UniProtKB/TrEMBL annotation:
<dbReference type="Pfam" id="PF02114">
    <property type="entry name" value="Phosducin"/>
</dbReference>
<protein>
    <submittedName>
        <fullName>Phosducin-like 2</fullName>
    </submittedName>
</protein>
<feature type="domain" description="Phosducin">
    <location>
        <begin position="46"/>
        <end position="201"/>
    </location>
</feature>
<comment type="similarity">
    <text>Belongs to the phosducin family.</text>
</comment>
<dbReference type="InterPro" id="IPR024253">
    <property type="entry name" value="Phosducin_thioredoxin-like_dom"/>
</dbReference>
<dbReference type="InterPro" id="IPR051498">
    <property type="entry name" value="Phosducin-like_chap/apop_reg"/>
</dbReference>
<dbReference type="GO" id="GO:0005737">
    <property type="term" value="C:cytoplasm"/>
</dbReference>
<dbReference type="InterPro" id="IPR036249">
    <property type="entry name" value="Thioredoxin-like_sf"/>
</dbReference>
<dbReference type="GO" id="GO:0006457">
    <property type="term" value="P:protein folding"/>
</dbReference>
């Protein structure tokens, strides 16, 4: 029996005549626990908050302090990145007077989506509903809405809803009118896909949700 535990078997395993003895489940778990404890002791920074890292600084030698400072800077960068990505998260109403500040002069690394609407138009209310959902899903993007009269006087109703996409103060995409925005039966997934095509968001949708409908229309024709 190659798995028998005798002194003779140990000698045969030493000279590789027999394969190494298979570890039991208990031995494997024990080894995993030892590795976990080892990593826990060797790299304690991973389990500390920024406050704990600062308090523990006096207990480390010079090499530890250098490693600690590098790790603290890394954690700060991750925290700042997370804060920036979660800065928005809602569809916010602005007026025409705020347009330049909120849209044109937004930070260069921030995408801005603004919906010009009129509350008397059902398609505009539908777009606002979908943009509210997308704002929560993509909190790193600034989602805004504004009553069209406060921004542009005498804007024709046939051009509503109007969705404008900005970055670095320039228009990167636009959807003008019901048809371009997706129609009166617009679904939130369809609007998400449209915005992803412009590059403003990274969608987890694998294909255009409206593809099947378009194929059916083509087949019907």
């Amino acid at each position: 029996d190659p798995n028998e535990d005798t002194e003779w078997h140990d000698i045969l395993r030493h000279f590789r005549i027999l394969p190494p003895k298979e570890k039991t489940k208990d031995e494997t778990e024990e080894m995993e626990q030892k590795v976990t404890i080892f990593l826990y002791l060797v790299n304690p920074y991973e389990r500390m908050s920024l406050e704990e890292l600062k308090e523990a600084e006096y207990d480390f030698d010079e090499a530890d302090r250098k490693a600690l400072e590098m790790y603290r800077q890394q954690r700060m960068q991750e925290w700042k990145c997370l804060q920036r990505r979660q800065k928005y998260g809602e569809l916010r109403e602005i007026s025409g007077e705020q347009y330049v500040k909120e849209v044109t002069n937004a930070p260069e690394d921030v995408w801005v989506i603004i919906h010009l609407y009129r509350s008397s138009i059902p398609a505009c209310l539908l777009v606002n509903k979908h943009l509210s959902l997308l704002a929560r899903k993509f909190p790193e993007v600034k989602f805004l809405k504004a009553i069209v009269n406060s921004c542009i006087q005498n804007y024709h109703d046939s051009c509503l809803p109007t969705i404008l996409v900005y970055k670095t103060g320039e228009i990167k995409g636009r959807f003008v009118g019901v048809t371009e925005c997706g129609g009166i039966g617009l679904k939130v997934e369809e609007l998400e896909w449209k915005l992803a095509e412009v590059g403003v968001i990274e969608t987890d949708l694998e294909e255009n949700p409206k593809k099947d409908i378009m194929n059916m229309m083509t087949l019907s024709v």
